[in-house]
Design brief:
about 375 residues, mainly alpha, Arc Repressor Mutant, subunit A, 2 domains, two-stranded antiparallel ribbon, DNA-binding
Length: about 375
Amino acid sequence: MGRTPCCDKNNGLKKGPWTTEEDEKLIHYIQKHGYGNWRTLPKNAGLQRCGKSCRLRWTNYLRPDIKRGRFSFEEEETIIQLHSVLGNKWSTIASRLPGRTDNEIKNYWNTNIRKRLLRMGIDPVTHSPRLDLLDLSSILCSSLYGSSSSQINNFQTLLSMQQQQPLINPELLKLASSLFTTSSQQQQQQDYSNNQPCNPQIQNQVPPSHFVQFQDQIQQVPSTNSNVCTSVSPSFPNHSHLFETNVNTNPSNFTDQSCYNNQHSVPDIDWLENNGFGLSTFKEDIDYTPQLSNYNQYYGSDYNQNLMTHQTSNQILSTPSSSPTPMNSNSTCIIGSNTEDEKESYDSCNNRMKFEIPLHILDSNDFM
DNA sequence: AAAACTACCAACCGCGCGTGT
DNA sequence: GACACGCGCGGTTGGTAGTTT
């Protein structure tokens, strides 16, 4: 037996855009009686609408606390960060943005942010670079099935060329370099992956607990290929190119699996907050500070200017350049020569990876 | 000026979950 | 446990406004 429809399609109920009169009726009724029991509400309010339509109209448009107008810089930033963790959990994202509805955020994502990411060559679902835009197939194969010396040499040549004259999106190159990890690291990662949800999208939504745990593992594994070390944080493999990750938290704090949302296998923000890991705390402990270079691509130079003005603001989530902390080596990448320099400080390591974004790879639309 | 195209967003639809019986 | 119901969520559609050709 199927579900009974919320509203009979043949009983003359009105559909389509709401009129001012209908809006007024709905507002007046809710102000007087409150909302609840949406099924009977339209009849009581004298509306020829189904309850579902009334609820939607109220929650998405008529509610007094609805915020109208363009999304602010902070709001957009929050949406991107939350989406990278939660995926299409629009209602959850909306709950973190006062005055914004899930529908509004969803629309904004689909019409603005998503397209911008696509233009940048970033998969808006996984937040990872779209490798189909770059011929890295051989690199990927070698990373997965073992690298031949010639392949390594070719890749090193590519890196060398890139340093002299940037040819491709440095973030894509960074990802490629990260895939050039040693087999032992691959094995470690494989072992780790076996404990992850099967859904690759869900894998991108693993809470930081796994990240911290794996950090501990990987620190113990010396790279046999000294030219290239991994920069991909295992638990956020597809986000590390967007957010430098400073981990200062106690790993044990995140090992409780109850931090997952049972329904969706994503981090449960309520759980995090109830256990002292609200997003604000999150920001303090784990700094998902997007790399400036990435946001250069997101928003152009104005964005960086914007970042500077937000450095001191007290926001729920991290602002891209708000972290004065040097980047942690665990999430950064060393690409350089075979010299003792490889052992130099994290800062030097970071500097090597901080390519200036060549203007020719930026879409002018990214500045819009 | 008009047609074609694009962007935006309100609204609809189907499904799944929680709850009560 | 099975079923009915109410509700909310996420994906999609369709209308409209703006822009380009």
